[in-house]
Amino acid sequence: MNNIAVVGLGNLLLADEGFGVHLIRFLQKNYTFQGVDIIDGGTIGFQLIEYFLNYEHLIFVDAIKVDDEPGSIYKFPLSEVPPNLTFVSSIHEIGLGDVLHHVSLMGEDKDAIVIGIVPLAITPNELSMELTPLLRSKIEPVAKLVLEEIVRLGGSYARRCNS
């Protein structure tokens, strides 16, 4: 088993809220990895705890709610989540913030990084599996941050020939 996991979170049916999953698909299509698992975490909620138990290093990519311009990108350790930030999730889902609270109570804090992006559109009343053009334009810059973090943690990657 690899010791680094990149976990993309979000609901693909809610436009920009699915950014993390879109990013995972981009990474899987365009890169190969050594020492790293690339995981579509979707909306699995409390099942995320398993990743804290099984991996030494975690990188989460998720839509975040903060008073900033849509498309703004944030990177921070889980231990330093800004107080004015929340993780975007629908009312029926358990979000990363809920999982972090439980993991902390279990004493399973890990070296984990969040790369978050402020969404432009979350469409609970109109389902859309497409990112807005603004967030679509942020896939490569966020992928670059993820790849840099993978290397910092001791993993490696290579660009696929067909991408």
State Rg.
Answer: 15 Å
Taking the alpha carbons of the first and last residues, their distance comes to: 26 Å
Largest sheet: 6 strands, mixed
Percentage of β-strand residues: 25-35%
The tally of helices reads 5
Q: Give the tally of β-strands.
A: 8
CATH first level: which class?
Alpha Beta
Q: Label the CATH architecture.
A: 3-Layer(aba) Sandwich
Shape: globular
Order of helices and strands: EHEEHEEEHEHHE
Question: Under CATH, the topology is which?
Answer: Rossmann fold
Helical percentage: 25-40%
How many domains comprise the coordinates?
1
CATH superfamily: HybD-like
Structural class: alpha/beta
What's the pLDDT, averaged over the residues?
84
Given as residue ranges, the uncertain stretches (5+ residues, pLDDT < 50) are: none
Describe the structure.
This protein has 163 residues and is α/β, with parallel strands linked by helices. The chain has one domain: 3-Layer(aba) Sandwich (Rossmann fold), CATH 3.40.50.1450. Helix content is 29%, strand content 27%. It has helices spanning 19-30, 49-54, 96-106, 133-136, 139-152, and strands at 4-9, 31-34, 36-42, 57-65, 73-77, 86-87, 111-117, 156-159. Strands 1, 3, 4, 5, 6 and 7 form a 6-stranded mixed sheet that branches. The protein has a two-stranded antiparallel ribbon with strand order 2-8. Helix 1 (19-30) packs across helix 5. The model has no long low-confidence stretch (mean pLDDT 84).
